[in-house]
Amino acid sequence: MSGDKIQGTLDITADRCPMTFVKVKLTLEDMNQGDILEVIISGGEPLENVPGNLKREGHTVLSIELAGQHYRMLVQKG
């Protein structure tokens, strides 16, 4: 995925569900279809819930990888 151009980055590691998904959704609303958003996300409940909610909203989760203490998730706006 390193060849893909990331149009934005959002760190939601300090947030709790459901605000984690709400913040990602609001950020994606301001982006164009096909744009890629990098999301820095905590493990546990956010990691369990946010990717599935994004898929249900029509977005594509391109990757999720451990990056230090948190995860780096790339989402393409659907």
Compact description:
With about 80 residues, this protein is α+β, with helices and mostly antiparallel strands. The chain has helices spanning about 20-30, 45-55, and strands spanning about 10, 35-40, 60-65, 70-75. The model has no long low-confidence stretch (mean pLDDT about 95).
Overall strand count = 4
Mean pLDDT: 93
- Gross CATH architecture: 2-Layer Sandwich
Per the CATH scheme, the topology name is: Translation Initiation Factor IF3
Q: How many domains?
A: 1
In spatial order, strands of the major sheet run: 1-2-4-3
Q: Calculate Rg over CA atoms.
A: 11 Å
Provide a count of the helices: 2
| Main sheet: strands, sense, barrel | 4 strands, mixed
Low-confidence stretches: none
SSE series? EHEHEE
Distance between the termini: 17 Å
State the main characteristics:
single chain, 78 residues, 2 helices, alpha+beta, Translation Initiation Factor IF3, 4 strands, globular
List the helices and strands and how they pair.
Layout: E1 8-11, H1 19-29, E2 36-41, H2 45-56, E3 60-67, E4 70-76
Parallel strand pairs: 1-2
Antiparallel strand pairs: 2-4, 3-4
Q: Please, could you describe this protein's structure?
A:
There is one protein chain. By secondary structure, this protein is α+β, with helices and mostly antiparallel strands. The protein contains two helices and four strands. Strands 1-2-4-3 form a four-stranded mixed β-sheet, covered by helices on one side. The radius of gyration is 11 Å and the shape is globular. The two termini are 17 Å apart. The model has no long low-confidence stretch (mean pLDDT 93).
